Every structure is written in C-alpha cells, then in structure tokens.
Write a sequence for this structure.
C-alpha cells in the first residue's frame, strides 16, 4: 500500500512538473513528504554504511606510524629482502614470497626495480674492495629485482636463515639458496644482515616508505 502511495504521489509530482495546471490533493502532499523522508533516511543509511566501512579501514590500520625500519627486537622488526635478477629470471618470485607469508611474516613493502649500476654499487658498497665486486655490480644491475620489506619478530635473523648461507654448497635443503642455487654468484636472493643494514637498505630501496597496517590474524601468529 505504501509502495502504491509513493507511485501515485510520484505520478502526481511528474504530472505537476510536466506543466499541467493541477492542484495536488492534501493526501498526495503527505505522501510526497513521506517519500522525501524515506529518500533522506536512505541517503543517511548509505552514508552511515560508508562511515562503517571507513571505521573498518581504520581498524585495519590500528598500528602506529612506524619508521621504515620498524622497531628491531619487536614484532615490528623489519628487513630488506630482494629477489635478485637470477631469481626473477628463474620465475621463483611467488615461491619466495609464499615462504615468508606461510611462516607468518607480514609483507609491508613490495616493488620491482631494475637497478642502475650506480645503485647496485651503492647497495654492495661494503664489498667494493673485493675482487668479485665489478662482476657482482654487473650482475645485480643486469635485470629487474624484486624489493621487499618484511615485518615480524626476529625477521632479520630468521630471514637470513630462510635464505640460506651465502655459499650455496653450505646452504641446507629447505632454505631458498639450498633449494634453488648451486653457484655463489647466482644465489637468488638478498637479505639484510643486521638492524643497521636493514635501516640503510630500506631507506635506500623504499624512499617512499612502506605500509603500516594491522593484520587480523596476528593473534594466531603471536601469543602476545
Ligand atoms: P650475502 O648475500 O649472503 O649477504 P655477501 O658476503 O654480502 O653475502 O655477498 C654479497 C653477494 O656477493 C653474495 O650473495 C654473492 O652473490 C656474492 N659473492 C660473495 N662472495 C663472493 C665470491 O667470493 N665470489 C663471487 N661472488 C661472491
Ligand atoms: Mg650481505
């Protein structure tokens, strides 16, 4: 009945606005008022829904704004991990990301970049005196790499363990290098080796910063 009243009053309004000279009956005016009230509450309801969505978004981001290197020694510790050009060519980016995700670590930064020789040299600056340095710089700038920032308790040490040893021969099966590499100069991945190098490398590879977001399943990964 309410619906037919609305339709009738809508027709009356349409008729009135078509230029016909007509007098709207009192009951129709009441119906138009009711119709407007319904419209207003519908609009209010929609904006409340988007407000709720907004709140939900805020809840998802309930972690504090952190420096790019996070907070070493806590579950907000962060490291810089990279899939080197050989890992990209070998098409194991997904597997590498998946290992860290499955372990419970949180990906907060992800970007593909083709390093220039200058940037490669800067990244490996601590090895600049080594005889293999020129070859390392050439290799690291030979194609795109996948830059990642991972977050979680002990991620700097644990990340290195999951990568394996620098020398593939010493890397245990089950580690990334132990599963995918044979040669020292093609060992697939990079990982920061200390909180200081994590800070330096994250600032270098993520000058735009990373993503501070809360994760709903944290309580299933951490006891506290
Ligand atoms: P890491 O990658 O395990 O941190 P680093 O000593 O920092 O090891 O060396 C950086 C990279 O340089 C290694 O991952 C490896 O690819 C390469 N590299 C290290 N030592 C040698 C070497 O003796 N010959 C050739 N390449 C090397
Ligand atoms: Mg190193």
């Amino acid at each position: 009945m309410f619906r037919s009243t609305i339709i009738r009053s809508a027709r009356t309004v349409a008729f009135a606005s078509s230029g016909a000279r007509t007098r709207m009956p009192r009951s129709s005016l009441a119906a138009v008022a009711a119709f407007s009230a319904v419209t207003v509450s519908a609009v209010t309801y929609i904006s409340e829904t988007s407000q709720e969505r907004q709140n939900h978004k805020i809840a998802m981001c309930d972690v504090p704004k952190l420096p790019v290197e996070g907070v070493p020694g806590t579950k907000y510790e962060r490291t810089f991990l990279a899939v080197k050009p050989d890992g990209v060519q070998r098409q194991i980016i997904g597997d590498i990301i998946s290992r860290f995700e499955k372990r419970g670590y949180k990906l907060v930064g992800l970007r593909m970049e083709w390093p220039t020789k200058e940037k490669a040299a800067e990244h490996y600056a601590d090895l600049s005196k080594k005889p293999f340095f020129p070859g390392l710089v050439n290799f690291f700038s030979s194609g795109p790499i996948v830059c990642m920032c991972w977050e979680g308790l002990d991620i700097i040490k644990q990340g290195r363990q999951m990568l394996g040893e620098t020398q593939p021969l010493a890397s245990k099966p089950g580690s990334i290098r132990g599963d995918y590499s044979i040669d020292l100069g093609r060992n697939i991945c990079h990982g920061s080796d200390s909180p200081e190098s994590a800070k330096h490398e994250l600032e270098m590879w993520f000058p735009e910063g990373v993503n501070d977001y809360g994760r709903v399943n944290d309580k299933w990964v951490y006891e506290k």
